[in-house]
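> call design_seq(struct)
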């Protein structure tokens, strides 16, 4: 019974890792596509800073999500989980704070704007 729980835990954590990796890659691609001048206009650090943050975030997400799945074993995911969670948090900060400010500068922020939630 314990082996089934280990496999279930592995697949659930693997799925969550892939979801976090998707968010981290989305943040990285969005950051790379945005011109550096837009970052300066919204006073949100520099493009180099956010590119480094989202690239490291995506790297840790890749290590957590893809490497254990390729090994096909039940690894100890403790430290990798912490790094992936930190990376997902950094990508979330970019997507929740920096990206909307950049959209305002580009003129896309006023379209389809609903509630602040």
């Amino acid at each position: 019974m314990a082996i089934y729980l280990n496999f279930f835990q592995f697949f659930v954590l693997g799925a969550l890792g892939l979801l976090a990796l998707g968010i981290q890659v989305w943040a990285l691609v969005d950051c790379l596509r945005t011109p550096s001048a837009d970052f300066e206009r919204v006073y949100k650090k520099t493009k180099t800073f956010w590119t480094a943050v989202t690239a490291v975030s995506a790297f840790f997400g890749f290590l957590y999500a893809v490497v254990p799945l390729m090994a096909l074993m039940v690894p100890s995911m403790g430290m990798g989980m912490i790094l992936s969670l930190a990376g997902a948090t950094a990508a979330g900060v970019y997507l929740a704070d920096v990206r909307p400010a950049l959209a305002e500068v580009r003129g896309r922020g006023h379209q389809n704007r609903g509630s602040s939630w």
